[in-house]
């Protein structure tokens, strides 16, 4: 199967998740609420978008780990003579594991995005808990630290002269998640976090 089809399959929910977390998503509130009345609330739309982004990041990380394992078994997944070749990147023994613990980057991505999903699920279920705002900041710190990892991995790709499409998708997921956690803290600080905040804003319009 053409692996690039997976890129498209990942990009669609990732883009939709991003839209839900922006003003564009706010403008879709009325349309979304016709299918699910709860989507009229800014926080619920935002957390749905953040969950989608985290899920895409997790699934892409699983995919990269699978590719690494297939290559180690002598398989060929998405090699190419062009600059885009995940096989050349993920199959490079010098760069496909972290330099400290020797763990696969795919596995590290799974743990990282799995942790982010735990945060988004926990906060989504108990948004008014005393720890909710703290968890959102943890997510922002984690994704912020992820920028350093992204910079390292991109430097590897530059050195190899190859780009791993799935790695890039995971990087984009991290950047969007960073934006998502940042905006969630903004909603919290501006008093737009609670469900009734949207209702009051609509009444005052």
Brief digest:
The chain is mainly α and 205 residues long.
Please state the overall shape, judged from the principal axes of the Cα atoms.
elongated
Helix/strand-derived category reads: mainly alpha
Order of helices and strands: HHHHHHHHH
What is the fold-level CATH name, i.e. the topology? de novo design (two linked rop proteins)
Could you tell me the radius of gyration in angstroms?
19 Å
CATH architecture type = Up-down Bundle
Total number of beta strands = 0
Q: For the terminal residues, how far apart are their CA atoms? A: 52 Å
Low-confidence stretches: 197-205
- Please give the count of helices: 9
Average predicted confidence as pLDDT: 87
What is the helical fraction, as a range of percent?
Answer: over 70%
Largest sheet entry: none
């Amino acid at each position: 199967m053409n692996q690039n089809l997976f890129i498209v399959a990942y990009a669609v929910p990732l883009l939709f998740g991003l839209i839900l977390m922006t003003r564009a998503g706010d403008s879709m509130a009325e349309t979304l609420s016709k299918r699910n009345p709860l989507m009229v609330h800014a926080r619920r739309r935002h957390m749905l978008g953040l969950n989608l982004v985290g899920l895409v990041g997790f699934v892409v990380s699983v995919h990269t780990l699978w590719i690494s394992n297939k290559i180690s078994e002598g398989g060929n997944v998405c090699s190419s003579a062009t600059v885009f070749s995940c096989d050349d990147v993920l199959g490079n023994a010098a760069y496909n594991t972290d330099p400290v613990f020797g763990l696969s980057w795919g596995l590290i991505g799974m743990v990282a995005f799995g942790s982010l999903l735990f945060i988004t699920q926990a906060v989504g279920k108990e948004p008014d808990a005393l720890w909710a705002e703290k968890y959102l900041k943890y997510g922002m710190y984690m994704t912020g630290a992820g920028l350093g990892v992204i910079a390292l991995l991109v430097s590897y790709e530059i050195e190899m002269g190859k780009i791993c499409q799935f790695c890039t998708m995971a990087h984009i997921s991290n950047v969007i998640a960073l934006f998502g956690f940042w905006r969630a803290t903004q909603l919290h600080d501006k008093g737009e976090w609670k469900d009734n905040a949207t209702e009051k804003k609509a009444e005052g319009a």
